[in-house]
């Protein structure tokens, strides 16, 4: 009698987790659509930075573009406040996404991702540094999917978080500085921010080209 219940538990957990995240998504989107969300992020409000942190932590798990928060960190807030808060949000978001992909959502996500990127799933898991950089460098994979994919592949948490935070932290810092420089008409800050983004993109492109041989031609074309 106990055997049939075992496979049902992951399905039940998957369903409950999905419904909870869907409810959060609907609630947030409804609030954004009906409320004056700009007032929430008014830098003069003592709650603005906290609201920004909560939104940046959870919305990207639902597919919201992370780049919007990178811009906001510099365009709305002082980047010397927005960037550290953004880094903390990235660390929490990456950790939660990794935990979900390693446990509750692992099998459903594996069934979804494996047919699309079969060559990635054929790589050796022990080379965690190479695997993490490769997935972060593949063009066309959204930020949230990268997090879930690395969790499904069971890359060790330490290298996953360190490398992911380094790469995305560079994008966060560069975009925040660029947007702040553009808003404040500070050309020097904008240039430095642009250089950080440019160097990060070039580094990832070089890494991807060097590791492109690890991907099958058909798989590379789908990205």
Description of the molecule:
By secondary structure, the chain is mainly alpha-helical. It has one domain (45-222). It is built from twelve helices and no strands. Helix 8 (128-137) packs antiparallel against helix 9 (143-152). It starts with a helix and ends with a helix. The model is unreliable at 1-8 and 215-223 (pLDDT under 50).
Percentage beta strand: under 5%
Q: How many beta-strand runs?
A: 0
Structural domain count: 1
Q: State the helical fraction.
A: over 70%
What overall geometry do the principal axes of the alpha carbons give? globular
Distance between the termini: 44 Å
DSSP summary: helix tally: 12
Mean pLDDT over the residues: 80
Category by helix and strand content: mainly alpha
Name a few traits of the molecule:
12 helices, disordered C terminus, globular, disordered N terminus, mainly alpha
Quick recap of the structure?
The protein has 223 residues and is mainly α. The chain is built from 12 helices and no strands. The chain has one domain.
Topology of helices and strands:
Layout: H1 5-34, H2 37-40, H3 48-58, H4 66-75, H5 79-102, H6 106-113, H7 118-121, H8 128-137, H9 143-152, H10 157-184, H11 187-211, H12 217-222
